[in-house]
């Protein structure tokens, strides 16, 4: 049975009015809650692996995937490269090669948002203004090249039985029930399986809305120093939002005010089907200087 939660226009995060800078990690900090992931944290995460089972949490990236309006992915082969040997032999071994060119934003497919992606008005994480962040070739601070590769404990909250439709709000009670007594710790990654990812092959349906964590849960996540969170959805937070006049406020709050990183468009179906709640998460990404996000193919190991 799917439980629907109606919009509450008077609802806002508890932290909505407070100034959020400088960061508790320092006025120059760019890592946010990733500061909680150290060598000891990585070692404990890898200690969770007993079977060597690998779950791929990333979707295949191509031009037919669902995208937010205005974004696109285009890939073409470079004709001068794949016809190289038709005109001029290269070496006695007749070597040939094929290459491609890609035109796209990092803000599509399975991807990690850098802390430069969202702002509240003209200020982002740690109080940096858009003018201080933005340049023609990318951001000057908080670019995804500043984000370390991530190895930490992952937790999966399967809420697909109760929060699986557009606008459904995931609550603290939902998460506590789904985790079955497993307590989040500083530096953990908390992922959500809503079942919405089953619509991935139907782009129009996939982007028309989504379930997601609500305001109460966002404050709960921040209070527990969770470093990373993500869903099997195209954004993070319910769409339509709890307050229709405040769209995307949940990821905005987590990114800008608290330095919590977000991964979007995860494929959590297999992990949820096997009933996995706790695992070692390994998330690596290209370090593209000045980018506001990065494509990633995270894996869960158990």
Structural commentary:
This protein has nine helices and 15 strands. With 302 residues, the chain is α/β, with parallel strands linked by helices. The protein folds into two domains: 233 residues, Glucose Oxidase, domain 1, CATH 3.50.30; 31 residues, no CATH class. The strands form four sheets. The protein has a nine-stranded mixed beta sheet with strand order 1-15-13-7-9-11-12-4-14. A two-stranded antiparallel sheet has the order 2-3. A hairpin with a 2-residue loop joins strand 5 and strand 6. Helix 7 packs parallel to helix 8. The chain is globular, with a radius of gyration of 20 Å. The N terminus is likely disordered.
Briefly summarize what is shown:
This protein is 19% helix and 19% strand.
Percent helix, as a range, is 10-25%
Order of helices and strands: HEEHHEEHEEEEHEHEHEHEHEEE
Give the count of helical stretches: 9
Rg, alpha carbons? 20 Å
What share of the residues does DSSP label as strand, in percent?
A: 15-25%
Name the average pLDDT.
92
What would CATH call the architecture of the largest domain?
3-Layer(bba) Sandwich
For the record, what CATH class of the largest domain applies? Alpha Beta
Gap between N and C termini: 30 Å
CATH topology of the largest domain: Glucose Oxidase, domain 1
Query: Which structural class fits the helix and strand makeup?
Result: alpha/beta
